[in-house]
Amino acid sequence: MHWYLSLVAALAGCLVEPVVGVPHPTQQGTCKKTKVAILGGGVAGITAAQALTNASVHDFAILEYRDTLGGRAWHKPFGKDKDGKPYVIEMGANWDWEIQEERKIRSGSWWAQKYGLKTHYSNYDNVSTYNKDGYSDYSHLLDLYEDAYDIASQNAGEILTQNLQDQNAKSGLALAGWNPKSTDMEAQAVDWWSWDFEDAYSPLESSLAFGCAGDNLTSNYFSDHDNFVLDQRGFNMIFKKMASTFLRKNDPRLHLNTQVTNITYSDDGVTVHNKDGSCVEADYAIVTFSLGVLQNDAVKFSPKLPDWKQEAIQKFTMGTYTKIFFQFNETFWPSETQYHLYADPVTRGWYPIWQSLSTTGFLPESNIIFVTVTNEFAYRAERQTDEETKKEAMEVLRKMFPEKHIPEPTAFMYPRWTQEPWAYGSYSNWPPATSLEMHQNLRANAGRLWFAGEATSPTFFGFLHGAYFEGLDAGRQIAAVMQNRCVNANSTKLRECGPRKHYETLHGTSPYSDYTMLNGWAVDSFIDTNTD
Ligand SMILES: Cc1cc2nc3c(=O)[nH]c(=O)nc-3n(C[C@H](O)[C@H](O)[C@H](O)COP(=O)(O)OP(=O)(O)OC[C@H]3O[C@@H](n4cnc5c(N)ncnc54)[C@H](O)[C@@H]3O)c2cc1C
Ligand SMILES: *[C@@H]1O[C@H](CO)[C@@H](O)[C@H](O)[C@H]1NC(C)=O
Ligand SMILES: *[C@@H]1O[C@H](CO)[C@@H](O)[C@H](O)[C@H]1NC(C)=O
Ligand SMILES: *[C@@H]1O[C@H](CO)[C@@H](O)[C@H](O)[C@H]1NC(C)=O
Ligand SMILES: *[C@@H]1O[C@H](CO)[C@@H](O)[C@H](O)[C@H]1NC(C)=O
Ligand SMILES: *[C@@H]1O[C@H](CO)[C@@H](O)[C@H](O)[C@H]1NC(C)=O
Ligand SMILES: *[C@@H]1O[C@H](CO)[C@@H](O)[C@H](O)[C@H]1NC(C)=O
């Protein structure tokens, strides 16, 4: 599928003048005019556009920094197969959550089914354990963690339902019986694999209540059956297909290679200025940029975002999750096992999990394996050269498989997520002692400026399905407001309509009655996706 930048000529004449401090959109007459400006063409932006289309709002524009749709669902060619053709591997999102049979929505996620996405069951129990001397069975620690986690999660449920003070997940796990010593590196490896591998942050850096709630919600509303995407068209193919249901070839509403630099907003409208000098004037805008983009002031807002919004943006955290890919001329590791966990004797999180792709059902005979590092070690790898990182990682492999002669890789690659100016990191997380109220401020609109994306989902933050539900909700809500369907805010059909609630002052906790669709607690909306 090809997407073309088609409006360059039309926009070339757009006058650009500083609009600092002017609360109303400038009336220069040369900006492209549209009803809804969708800022970012990732999952949230594409879903918002589809939701608008479904509500008969066709006058929108999607402004996307890159030359492609999909955002953090992003792949690259890597290595080669027997015929010399490169494999397609995912730099970003890689796992797709299967939907429970009892939800009667087919097995496999609904988009995977719809578009025939090729995936394979990712079995987290299929893990071998290693330390500096090679294979070492400490898998009993995995069971100890699981037992404590179940207790911690129940306690987390009480924090949520009884509106109690949140805490960090490390203390929650310790009180539940999982309290690994800082010198017990096998336990530390299990701790990393059981928590950081998903959240990109350590238990100490994560909210107990919302870490556990997020886990529950994804496994309850989808399942704990995760499928690893191997589709050689790339994971973002499904989102491009979704976009092709409402965008035609050369659709003038799609502006690729368009970097938004300034956004002027008010209660009446929004003007968006782009780096190339073009501008768009809209009645509403939906900002779907990552939390990393917002935290890094990569886009200027005029007037400045209100204090409550700026605080919310800085209070949540943006993790970095880096997959480091290797291809060898042979598969020297036990290829029938999916995961290989390494406990470094000194450093927690040091090249900890090696995942084989050269495995039946994945990319057999590809001789590809990759190791995942998070935050501190992801930043470190980003600062190093490829050669430096490769050397360190190869030393780990040689410790894990001391009896093998390990050749140099024939291909090697990893992304540098914090340096991507359209992402500034991988995905968001909730730090300790957060509250739903705090998150409502992240999600709330500021005048005609709405926010959607992975980070604005309180239930599925960090995930593609979080971005999907948030794009869906923003698109539906804006359409409803535009079409005056919010007259009765008590309508059960729309549940919520109109501006979202925010708090000028945070109270620390939130009553359980606030955990509703209204605040993005999207638990019910799943069944509802196709109804308006
Ligand atoms: C390494 C990694 C692994 C992950 N693993 C999984 C996984 O296994 N499963 C899962 O469900 N999720 C996973 N995720 C998370 C998932 O990718 C995100 O939740 C989802 O893609 C976010 O979609 P979004 O639309 O909210 O944001 P984005 O995809 O970031 O979309 C925002 C868009 O805005 C654009 N943009 C940014 N700045 C500007 C600007 N100034 N002007 C114009 N456009 C701009 C960006 O280019 C981007 O296309 C992973 C992410 C990463 C990085
Ligand atoms: C955008 O913001 C930058 C930095 O604040 C400023 O220098 C520039 O003049 C602004 N451009 C527009 C079009 O508002
Ligand atoms: C839009 O409508 C189509 C057709 O009914 C449906 O498949 C799709 O899920 C809807 N999308 C959104 C975002 O509402
Ligand atoms: C992983 O699964 C494969 C295939 O079922 C099996 O042969 C292998 O022994 C398993 N490995 C572990 C560590 O459980
Ligand atoms: C998670 O689910 C378990 C089992 O249903 C429940 O006991 C617990 O309270 C839930 N925790 C949270 C934080 O929702
Ligand atoms: C892989 O390369 C190494 C040398 O780096 C060589 O010893 C080994 O035989 C090769 N394996 C295969 C399967 O060709
Ligand atoms: C919504 O319901 C509340 C409480 O039932 C009522 O006080 C309010 O007037 C209703 N609002 C509208 C717009 O009907």
Automatic annotation (TrEMBL):
Catalytic class of the enzyme: oxidoreductase
MF term (GO), any: oxidoreductase activity
GO biological process: polyamine catabolic process
Pfam families, per the entry: Amino_oxidase
EC number: 1.4.3.-
Record Gene3D superfamilies: 3.90.660.10, FAD/NAD(P)-binding domain
Domain Amine oxidase: 43-95, 211-478
Leader sequence segment: 1-21
Cofactor: FAD
Keywords linked to the UniProt accession: FAD, Flavoprotein, Oxidoreductase, Signal
Matching InterPro entries: Amino_oxidase (IPR002937), FAD/NAD-bd_sf (IPR036188), Flavin_amine_oxidase (IPR001613), Flavin_monoamine_oxidase (IPR050281)
Residue sites binding FAD per the record: V260
Family as reported in the entry's similarity comment: Belongs to the flavin monoamine oxidase family.
Protein name per its UniProtKB record: Amine oxidase
Species for this entry: Penicillium salamii
Lineage of origin: Eukaryota, Fungi, Dikarya, Ascomycota, Pezizomycotina
